[in-house]
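User: Quick one: structure for sequence A, then sequence B.

Assistant: Sequence A:
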Amino acid sequence: MFTKVLLALDGSPEAMSAIPYAVDMLDAEGEIDVIHVRELMIGRGGKQTLHADESEVEDIVRSAVATLKAQGVRVTLQFATTSSASPAHAIAEAARLANSDVVVMGTRGRGQVVGLLLGSVTQRLLHIAHCPVLAVPPGAIRAQPVAETAEPARV
């Protein structure tokens, strides 16, 4: 169980599937710090968000945070913006500044070749984060918690 969990969300279904894992990892006094990284492109028109639907993505992330709060989870939300560094660097820095115990994020599972060509935030984060990273693959099935018994088993 962890006290400080950093949950990286990009609004995708794969990222959102990591939310229950982050909640499951919290101890009784724990809290989740949610981060969403806006990626900027620099071009002739100035700085533009990489994703045209960025405001919709941010609404999805805000809604997820509101749902967690409604469930009684201690949660904060921060937005970071990056144009020169990858989102992985922004996530790693947020985890370091918050003294996070673990980073939780969903993966798209695109495969090695596509990951090599397009880059992988998860792959990069695994190499630069100061703490463990839980990468939740698409379609992951959560294990059910083991029920505690009233008396310990005797051998």
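Sequence B:
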Amino acid sequence: MNEYQTAHTDHTSQKGPRIGDVRLDNITVLAPLAGITNLPLRLLAKEAGCGLVYSEMVSAHGLVNQSQKTSKILDSTPEEKPLTVQIFGSDPGVMAEAAGIVADKGADIVDINFGCAVRKILKSGSGAALMRDPRKAEALLKAVRQVLKIPLTIKIRSGWDPSGCQAFEIAALAQDCGVDAIAVHPRFGKQGFAGQADWSIIRKIKDMLAIPVIGNGDINTPEDALRMQSETGCDAVMLGRAAIGNPFIFKQINALAAGLAIPPISLDQRFEIMLRYLTASVQYLGEKQACYMLRSRLGWFSKGMRHSSGFREAIKKIASQAEARSIITAYRASIDHE
């Protein structure tokens, strides 16, 4: 048993935090990733033991204007619950209407994106731009909170400079507006995913607030997850990039938190999950659209395997489920026959 297991056996072997009236089974959360955390990926994460999954971010204007493409992001099944749907926008009235649509569609929690720093999102005054304008942020949060009966959360960055001052201001404001939990990715807006996340900001926000705080950023291994909780006191840990192609990490974190050995993941398991993701994606999106998307995504599941670069190259032009399955099978055979 390592130092994190010793420190956390009593605490994290219990259920996860309560967000409003939603109680998580454990401390693990799948981050919202635009264009990535769709229904097939969320179901894999949930099956692997993830306590709470987030949708990819959804345009509030798209929902209100009944965009078919936007509305499809809300597709869900009971197996993935509890589900948080993340919306983005800057107009309080539109955001309130969109939040109502999300709730009516069966989401368990509505989250507002306060962290996206993509230029298109910033130009609309959405995402991390809201952290520059506390008055607008307050009006938006109050409008959404007023129409929602289900829990409301926000996901923020540290702001626009490394100090975290804007994060502290927005976090306090959010709690005052009735937000039920806050996820903190402690990188500043222009930093993207570069450099190192400043976990001390999560610690300071946790010390400030009475509502649950979810820590996010630089969790690459199960040990990182428990180290973040130990260092920051956060109530749950959120994983994004580390869980893409490796949903097993949720199972491993939960085992470590319970004081158990980290379960190894076999080659059979990794190839099985790859094939299941292929099948689920085709069923969800249709063969043509799924294959186009999977040209870049099936490679996620080969990370760390031998000859993965050749596999990633081979799948760049897949046009059918049968072709993809054949390439996966051949790749597996090439590893077995070495």
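The chain has two domains: 3-257, 267-336. The chain has a mean pLDDT of 91.

User: Thanks, that's what I needed.
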